[in-house]
Amino acid sequence: MKDSYTSIVQLIERLHRHFLDVLRAELRRLGIEDINAVQALLLANIGGDDVVIRDLKDRGYYHGSNVSYNIKKLTETGYIQQERDAHDRRAVRLKLSAKGLDLCDRIRELQDHLTADLEKSGMSPPAMGTAIEALQGVEHSWTNYIRYGRR
């Protein structure tokens, strides 16, 4: 079990880096040079939602300084629009601009292409389901450790 756990932890790290490399390559292919892969992933995580920056942090995707810097850059480059929340003037609501939504559509097309490639290579839905369950188990274990420490 210990060897499998260690392998999964290492694989998670590599997969995240590789996925950012995939996004970087796609941005290059599309001729997009004004944002980086991490910022493109942030756009994809926002998608069509209208979110508050705090929500992105609470979802566990980003740390405070990273998300603030990236939101600033995405606003400056025209991918995100910001406005004060009507109910809580301290909160800033984010939504993608037409430019941001267009890039999200392109990322969705990339994901569809990658999914089709996985299916062609023999990856089955049950195998993906098993992988998801295993990774959710690791996530649950880590969340419990963060919340409650060692038990």
Topology of this protein?
Elements: H1 2-30, H2 37-46, E1 51-52, H3 53-58, H4 64-76, E2 80-84, E3 92-96, H5 98-120, H6 125-148
Helix pairs in contact: 1-2, 2-4
Write out key terms for the chains shown.
70% helix; 3-stranded antiparallel β-sheet; single chain; Arc Repressor Mutant, subunit A; mainly alpha; 151 residues
Give a concise summary:
It contains six helices and three strands. It is mostly helical and 151 residues long.
Helix fraction by DSSP (H/I, runs of at least 4): 55-70%
Q: How many domain units?
A: 1
The chain-level mean pLDDT equals 90
Secondary structure: number of strands: 3
Main sheet? 3 strands, antiparallel
Category by helix and strand content = mainly alpha
Question: Taking Cα atoms only, what radius of gyration do you get, to the nearest Å?
Answer: 18 Å
- The CATH topology annotation reads as Arc Repressor Mutant, subunit A
Helix segment tally? 6
What global shape is seen? globular
Strand order of the largest sheet: 1-3-2
CA distance, first residue to last residue: 19 Å
Uncertain runs: none
Give the class-level CATH name.
Mainly Alpha
Name given to the CATH homologous superfamily = Winged helix-like DNA-binding domain superfamily/Winged helix DNA-binding domain
CATH architecture verdict: Orthogonal Bundle
| Beta-strand percent range | 5-15%
